Amino acid sequence: LPVTRxxxxxxxxxxxxxxxLARVGLIASNIVSDGAEIFWTEADVHPTGYVVACAAAGCGxxxxxxxxPWAPRGIALANGLLYWSTEGRAGPARIQRCPxxxxxxxxxxEEGDGAVPGQLLAPQVVGNDLYWILQDFDANRxxxxxxxxxxxxxxxxxxxxxxxxxxxxxxxxxxDTLAWFxxxxxxxxxxxxxxxxxxxxxxxGGVGI
Length: 209
Description:
The chain is an all-beta fold. It has no helices and 18 strands.
């Protein structure tokens, strides 16, 4: 795999001279920041994966490893906690969380058992609720994508907000609106019931929100 360079630049601009934070041999993606530090996931085609952190001003090219989850697929930062999602192959797909000085990650939710490959993608926290994408196959081995949620005020009990026969690629959650895009459709609905879901066919797959 080619080397991935992780760069940072103030929102005000940096004269086309961003700071190089790290060079990694894996695929770095899913970046979030609290202003002081930058956090991202690293993964490749194998189950190797990392959640890492680096000061926004730089870390000498050596980010610190916070966790080593199986195939991380998303990251979020809320209320001082990092959340990341994983792919499930040898076992359940998970969303885990940890403080920014992570020592021992906590599993928030598990989906599947590894017998049917699945992915948890795009975790987001709004208020006291966690949202994510569950991408897997049904009993007939047909692809499906589900937008899922649970309350963080107690044990996470997942429920499905929207289910599509499509590959979901991303979601955005506001205070009262959920929006998504998939290979074939995009749409939005009003939370919490999402009873007014309005899917819109895409002329080109993967249209952004």
